[in-house]
Specification:
The protein contains two helices and four strands; from the N terminus they run H-E-E-E-E-H. By secondary structure, it is an alpha+beta fold.
């Protein structure tokens, strides 16, 4: 049995997240995407219809407030940046 490198583990983790994203979207659920450049209470939500919203956690901690809905070009750029094709 070979040695598993950190790079191998990272790839396995990324592949698992990609499969989970596809599964959630195919089942009609949004998928949360965290990005390092965002502050802690912010993330992106991608929806099965292709819409992507930049959101932040609401004051009650149970909901999200939409900050910005990405237009088609922004959404395409986002998917390319994070290799979500």
């Amino acid at each position: 049995m070979g040695v598993t490198t950190l790079k191998d583990l990272a790839k396995k983790g990324s592949d698992a997240v990609r499969r989970l994203r596809i599964q959630r979207l195919e089942n009609g659920f949004p998928f949360m995407i965290n990005a390092r450049e965002l502050e802690g209470s912010m993330c992106y939500l991608e929806y099965p219809d292709g819409t992507i919203n930049l959101v932040k956690q609401s004051a009650n901690g149970m909901d999200f407030e939409v900050i910005h809905t990405l237009d088609q070009r922004e959404a395409n750029d986002f998917r390319n940046k994070y290799q979500l094709r």
